[in-house]
Amino acid sequence: MRSLTFVALSALLAISSVNAQSSGSASATASASLALMSASPSAITADANNTAASGASVGKAFKYFMQVWLENNDYSTVAALPAYQKLAEQGILLTNYNAITHPSEPNYVAAAGGSNLGITDDAYYSIPANVSSIWDLVEAKGLKWKTYQEDIPSYGFSGFSAHNGSYVRKHNPAIIFDSIGLNDTRSANVVPANVLYDDIAANNVPAYSFYTPNITNDGHDTTAAFAGDWVTNFWTSISNATFLKDALVLITFDENETYSTRNQVWALLLGGVIPANLKNTTDNTYYTHYSALSTVEQNWNLGNLGRGDANQTEANVFSFVANALGVTNVNVTNVPMNNISIPGMLTNQSWNATHPKSTSTPLPSSSANSSASGSASASGAIAVTAVTGLGVATAIVAAVLPYLL
Ligand SMILES: *[C@@H]1O[C@H](CO)[C@@H](O)[C@H](O)[C@H]1NC(C)=O
Ligand SMILES: *[C@@H]1O[C@H](CO)[C@@H](O)[C@H](O)[C@H]1NC(C)=O
Ligand SMILES: *[C@@H]1O[C@H](CO)[C@@H](O)[C@H](O)[C@H]1NC(C)=O
Ligand SMILES: *[C@@H]1O[C@H](CO)[C@@H](O)[C@H](O)[C@H]1NC(C)=O
Ligand SMILES: *[C@@H]1O[C@H](CO)[C@@H](O)[C@H](O)[C@H]1NC(C)=O
Ligand SMILES: *[C@@H]1O[C@H](CO)[C@@H](O)[C@H](O)[C@H]1NC(C)=O
Ligand SMILES: *[C@@H]1O[C@H](CO)[C@@H](O)[C@H](O)[C@H]1NC(C)=O
Ligand SMILES: *[C@@H]1O[C@H](CO)[C@@H](O)[C@H](O)[C@H]1NC(C)=O
Ligand SMILES: *[C@@H]1O[C@H](CO)[C@@H](O)[C@H](O)[C@H]1NC(C)=O
Ligand SMILES: *[C@@H]1O[C@H](CO)[C@@H](O)[C@H](O)[C@H]1NC(C)=O
Ligand SMILES: *[C@@H]1O[C@H](CO)[C@@H](O)[C@H](O)[C@H]1NC(C)=O
Ligand SMILES: *[C@@H]1O[C@H](CO)[C@@H](O)[C@H](O)[C@H]1NC(C)=O
């Protein structure tokens, strides 16, 4: 990931509260929703018991939402590759979807927090536990969530990297939030990716999930073509999973590779809730990573974080969902560049972690629980530099994981 330092920007606070996205009245949308969904082979039906095992409640347009993030490739590069073209035949290609900023970490944070929260680089950050995130909204509604992380060495692992950098914290949208990372109960939802197959087998996939391939599979250290083959295989490997018939799946990229241009990335909607007549079509509505937030917030009536997810310009709801829900999107003609990180509360608050060295620590068995994280490979010294309002304090702490041990 590129590391850029942006200086002397106007000190806009990234977490300004704005008006919530407008939505149609529930009664007005109900019939439209039914009409649209009945076109789908897998109409959402009332299933009050669905929450029992999986936490997947009956959303208005889908019961499950999963996003899969690939890395650092330009829209034009990806769109030209056969693997992606073939996948796109099964879904709705979003031809005007945009990342929020550069480099990686602030995009992953924005995807969960509705803002880059001042993060402008890929260093070790801990977002104060009082900062809200989508994980809070999802839990407050009684829904379950997980992030599936390839090559994470243990459940809830909070180290900077593992397996020689194949797993990286900066690509983990949950653990950076201390409300998750410092809470054993919640960080148990941050799991090795192979757990997904167990969850599928047990019909226990959570309502809201995020899948992060390792830095080889996601294209970061390879190519868009490599990532295209990986994601094709990934999709094939889960394509007969039961949850998918009621799922909306977003496959996208964290950011565009070229900083000097608009931050457009390739993005595709898949899953059983895509109406049959919309498969193999495109949607040119202006979307961003905040659209993935606003779409689930509207689907499950979660409320919002009052940040980018509530900014009408940046948070159009995916059209077929917006139509089903009676949400009115805005026509964004003056498209934002989204190619720079907004300074804010976490600017200059990063740590320099000594990267835990790769060890022979095996992945935990998928039936292990979060207590297994005590055996993680990340014991070691971490130099912590905390920049406070009063100055810079440096400390050496023992990085025994999880932190609360
Ligand atoms: C829902 O769960 C209750 C209690 O377990 C059960 O009595 C009822 O039959 C279930 N309903 C459906 C539709 O499965
Ligand atoms: C949130 O927590 C941070 C760090 O502990 C603290 O500095 C800040 O004042 C808190 N903010 C609010 C609104 O409580
Ligand atoms: C670790 O990763 C670096 C590149 O990131 C690579 O050059 C090196 O060969 C890797 N080491 C092992 C043991 O895989
Ligand atoms: C990434 O995961 C794949 C399996 O999907 C594995 O073959 C590969 O070795 C992993 N990459 C690294 C760098 O560990
Ligand atoms: C940890 O998370 C659980 C589940 O959300 C919550 O009940 C508990 O209060 C949290 N603990 C702390 C210390 O915040
Ligand atoms: C799903 O597909 C995989 C491979 O494509 C196959 O091994 C598995 O048996 C299938 N499962 C079901 C339930 O059809
Ligand atoms: C963002 O894009 C604009 C317009 O191309 C360009 O002037 C600016 O330098 C870019 N910013 C960065 C940080 O690359
Ligand atoms: C990044 O996205 C912009 C906007 O679509 C596109 O013009 C540009 O081609 C992409 N970057 C490159 C080098 O393709
Ligand atoms: C998708 O649409 C293209 C034309 O836009 C067509 O050539 C292709 O056969 C379609 N694929 C499927 C699977 O329907
Ligand atoms: C909403 O997003 C637009 C486009 O990025 C930005 O210009 C505007 O300042 C944002 N509004 C608020 C209230 O933050
Ligand atoms: C958005 O606005 C542009 C410019 O006014 C117009 O050409 C376009 O048709 C509008 N698109 C939609 C979907 O309303
Ligand atoms: C982290 O290390 C880099 C490279 O040594 C240095 O440039 C940077 O200032 C350090 N950041 C902090 C927060 O200490």
From TrEMBL:
<protein>
    <recommendedName>
        <fullName>Acid phosphatase</fullName>
    </recommendedName>
</protein>
<dbReference type="GO" id="GO:0009395">
    <property type="term" value="P:phospholipid catabolic process"/>
</dbReference>
<keyword id="KW-0732">Signal</keyword>
<keyword id="KW-0472">Membrane</keyword>
<dbReference type="InterPro" id="IPR017850">
    <property type="entry name" value="Alkaline_phosphatase_core_sf"/>
</dbReference>
<dbReference type="GO" id="GO:0016788">
    <property type="term" value="F:hydrolase activity, acting on ester bonds"/>
</dbReference>
<feature type="transmembrane region" description="Helical">
    <location>
        <begin position="380"/>
        <end position="404"/>
    </location>
</feature>
<keyword id="KW-1133">Transmembrane helix</keyword>
<feature type="compositionally biased region" description="Low complexity">
    <location>
        <begin position="358"/>
        <end position="370"/>
    </location>
</feature>
<dbReference type="Pfam" id="PF04185">
    <property type="entry name" value="Phosphoesterase"/>
</dbReference>
<dbReference type="InterPro" id="IPR007312">
    <property type="entry name" value="Phosphoesterase"/>
</dbReference>
<feature type="signal peptide">
    <location>
        <begin position="1"/>
        <end position="20"/>
    </location>
</feature>
<keyword id="KW-0378">Hydrolase</keyword>
<feature type="region of interest" description="Disordered">
    <location>
        <begin position="351"/>
        <end position="370"/>
    </location>
</feature>
<keyword id="KW-0812">Transmembrane</keyword>
